[in-house]
Design brief:
The chain has 300 residues and is an alpha+beta fold. The chain contains 6 helices and 14 strands. A hairpin with a 5-residue loop joins β8 and β9. α1 crosses α4, α3 packs across α4 and α4 runs antiparallel to α5.
């Protein structure tokens, strides 16, 4: 941009004849296109003086470049806008998940309590140097050495020991499951986007651990295969790449006979997933990829 302004100052006598100012040109083209136009004008000046052309010839060359560049810029902008997709993938994903969600028996949002009692269940939890210790009807579990089943960020699983607070408890009485959402308080920076999900089977006393980063806070169970079996949907955040694109990977986990969750696979050994690829830039369209048991996104 500085080079462009210097050029304008050097040859402002020509622009005076044309009654143009740098402000006029910037408003006419926009900041980015202004720089491109000045670059083209540099070439025009070099050619003009190399062949010893007159100022009138130079002015004529500049006029052609100015209006030629403005026409090209307008055409490029229109093409970009026409190619931008406007599909609401987030909305359609949420709409689909709502049809598969299992309704919990009870939801308790914790308000600094360390003892929670509901129905025939008594839960006590505390934070110590070994992580969070949760006692459920006399059975104690600890997060100190627990690792998430899913990748939380990119290709990495996460240690649940980071959490220090039980923020929500959900009871699924008919499924014999109690869910705990664990967070870190008070949080700062990236830590505010981290949360963990612990599933405890009251019948088998087994535990399953999941984690999330920058993909929301929820503690939900589903029945994706319509087989009355419990499924869980994990999320993996694949951080922003060099082209400002983010990707969230969703994967299906199902409860096994021993009460634990494992990645769901069919008879061929295939797992099931879908991806939402998105950007904060309006000029980059969202994308959706899937290998799933149902059609999630409506065909246009």
């Amino acid at each position: 941009m500085q080079v462009a302004i210097l050029f304008f100052q050097r040859y402002k006598f020509i622009f005076k004849k044309l009654r143009f100012s740098s402000v006029h040109l910037i408003k006419f083209f926009g900041k980015d296109s202004f720089v491109q136009v000045i670059s083209a004008l540099l070439l025009a000046v070099n050619v003009t003086y190399h062949f010893k052309m007159t100022d009138k010839a130079l002015i004529f060359s500049i006029l052609i470049l100015i209006f030629g560049c403005s026409r090209t810029t307008d055409q490029t902008t229109d093409a970009t806008i026409d190619n931008v997709e406007t599909t609401d993938y987030n909305g359609q994903i949420e709409k689909y998940l709502e049809t598969k969600r299992i309704e919990p028996t009870l939801i308790l949002n914790n308000n600094e309590r360390t003892i929670i009692e509901f129905l025939d269940n008594k839960i006590r939890w505390q934070e110590n140097e070994k992580g969070i210790e949760i006692t459920i009807n006399g059975k104690t579990i600890n997060t100190v050495d627990k690792i998430t089943l899913n990748n939380v960020w990119g290709e990495g699983k996460d240690s649940v020991k980071f959490a220090n607070y039980v923020s929500q408890v959900k009871l699924y009485e008919y499924q014999n499951l109690i869910g705990f959402m664990l967070t870190y308080v008070p949080c700062t920076g990236l830590g505010c986007g981290v949360n963990y999900q612990v599933w405890y089977d009251t019948k088998t006393e087994s535990e399953s651990y999941f984690g999330r980063f920058n993909t929301g806070f929820d503690l939900e169970l589903y029945d994706f295969n319509n087989d009355n079996k419990v499924d869980y949907l994990s999320k993996t955040f694949n951080g922003r790449n060099a082209t400002l694109i983010d990707t969230t990977l969703f994967e299906m986990f199902s409860q096994t006979e021993d009460g634990k969750f494992a990645k769901f696979r069919n008879d061929k050994g295939d797992s099931f997933w879908f991806k939402h690829i998105y950007s904060e830039s309006d000029s980059i369209p969202d994308k959706f990829e899937e290998k799933w048991v149902d059609q999630i996104i409506e065909k246009r």
